[in-house]
């Protein structure tokens, strides 16, 4: 095996290291920081912002122990708990196009009937717009109910298809985000963006672990990128099992 400094393991968060929007278990946290980090460099790459990632890692002091934290697909970059770089979707696209997207999304969602609708349907982030038909203010029970409903009725996939049709020439990508939302970002600002930040480190291997690796999922591009070795996982427990095999950890 190559030396620790020449290998990087990157992890999606939701569905990979934690249950969606939940906090990492103590067992997996210690496993990553004690056993995995002793063998390879470790990083997180998520569509969420740093505050949400830190919450799910059980605190900012834990998140800071990862060698890299790539927020919002890597468009916002932290190292050692410190902000290193960030880009702005507003500066990149301009207010007019952003409002067109938001207005279309709100109009589309107003015509969907769901088991529940709550608040915070559009969340503006540095690198993307996160659109949530059920509303990010939903309870865990309402989230679970939407997930089941979406699995049957393909609410989000139909939404993505409508957005792609409306903004075909706008240079935007629309992807299923987590369990309940759709991510909207400039084409190229998917999770492969984070690989630009480690190019100068000359890693011999970069491994990526994620659960949304199917076409349209927000792990798809980085999972299939020629610069990474992709590992599809189904849960945090599966991630741990695969890591034990990859790194021969007992």
UniProtKB/TrEMBL annotation:
Pfam families: PMM. It catalyses: alpha-D-mannose 1-phosphate = D-mannose 6-phosphate. It comes from the Eukaryota. Signal peptide: none annotated. Its main location: cytoplasm. One of its GO terms (molecular function) is phosphomannomutase activity. Its EC number is 5.4.2.8. CDD domains: HAD_PMM. Alpha-D-mannose 1-phosphate binds at residues 21, 125, 136, 143, 181, 183. Its cofactor is Mg(2+). Belongs to the eukaryotic PMM family. This is Phosphomannomutase. It comes from Mythimna separata.
């Amino acid at each position: 095996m190559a030396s620790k400094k020449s290998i990087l393991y990157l992890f999606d968060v939701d569905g990979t290291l934690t249950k969606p929007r939940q906090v990492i278990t103590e067992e997996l946290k210690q496993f990553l920081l004690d056993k995995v980090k002793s063998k390879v460099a470790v990083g997180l790459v998520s569509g969420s912002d740093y505050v949400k990632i830190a919450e799910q890692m059980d605190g900012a002091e834990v998140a800071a122990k990862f060698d890299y934290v790539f927020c919002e697909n890597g468009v916002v970059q932290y190292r050692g708990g410190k902000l290193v770089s960030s880009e702005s979707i507003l500066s990149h696209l301009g207010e007019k196009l952003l409002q067109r997207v938001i207005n279309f999304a709100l109009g589309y969602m107003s015509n969907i009937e769901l088991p529940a609708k709550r608040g915070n349907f559009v969340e503006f982030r540095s690198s993307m717009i996160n659109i949530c038909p059920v509303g990010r203010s939903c309870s865990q029970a309402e989230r679970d109910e939407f997930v089941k409903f979406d699995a049957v009725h393909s609410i989000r996939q139909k939404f993505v298809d409508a957005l792609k049709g409306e903004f075909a020439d706008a240079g935007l990508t629309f992807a299923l985000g987590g369990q309940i939302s759709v991510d909207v970002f400039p084409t190229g600002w998917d999770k492969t963006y984070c690989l630009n930040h480690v190019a100068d480190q000359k890693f011999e291997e970069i491994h990526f672990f994620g659960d949304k690796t199917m076409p349209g999922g927000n792990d798809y591009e980085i999972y299939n990128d020629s610069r990474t070795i992709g590992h599809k996982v189904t849960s945090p427990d599966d991630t741990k099992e695969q890591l034990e095999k990859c790194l021969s950890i007992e």
